Amino acid sequence: MRVDVADTSSLTFDDGSPVRAASAIAALGDGWLIVQDDATHAAWWRSGSVTAVRAVEPVDGLEVFSSVAGTKHLKPDFEAACAVSVGGLEGVLLLGSGSAGPRMRASLVTLGTAERGQSALVADLTPVYRAVAGALGLRVDQLNLEGACLIGDRLRWFQRGNAAAAAPTACVDVDVAALLAAVTGARAADHVEVGEVRRYDLGQVDGVTLAVTDAVALAGGRVLVSAAAEDTPNAVDDGPVVGAALALLDDDGVVAIAQLPGSASGVYKVEGLAVTETTADGLSLFAVVDADEPATPSEQLTLRLRW
Right CATH number for 2-306 from 2.120.10, 1.20.144, 3.40.91, 1.10.150? Predict the structure, then answer.
């Protein structure tokens, strides 16, 4: 398996402001919804235009959050996104990373109708996150759920591993219908069952463990994940990224892995992945890169993967 970077571009809103900390990407309408993990809005990218779409209400009057401002602990930290359909409406389910109260929420962003327009429904899923932590054998503050994809009627949800915190890369399966029912209020969150656990060893780069940052489902039940080797002691703090890769997984383990080429400025920390085309010899994908710097626009990559 080999992956090449075919094109890159900077992501900015139509008003010139940067798309911050891109952490996930999912199809929405005639474009793509790009999640910002440190802001209350997502970015709807379509036909050369990028507009803001509210994902959650302001927190203490704030729309963006950062370590410098001392507000990082307040951010929603949506790190995973999946395209879904609810009540006949097209939408995207955004999922927080866990580890703290503000990060144990989901936001269901829907296009709505011409009369209703876009909307976002936010739900506290603390019981679900606690159940995931229990299934993985982790404390809640060790959770760092950074990727998810739909496989049939299940949502496969990936824990970004951290060797320093003794938290391996792993995933759990959750019933999609039950999860969406909890988000919409049709069912209590503590009734969402967490299913089978799978664990994966993606190897290391310069002694730093590669860990999953996003996931997309492929034919035959296989999953393609992006991974980053980030030297950080826990699930919250950023650290230097020394390598990145794409890995093909099945139920039994890692099928193949390919190093992601870097740029002159360093490693591409891919945090969002989406398939745009399937060909006989591979895939074309969009990826979004978190620069870990609020003033720097996130990058969008066009990747070409060959089997």
Answer: 2.120.10
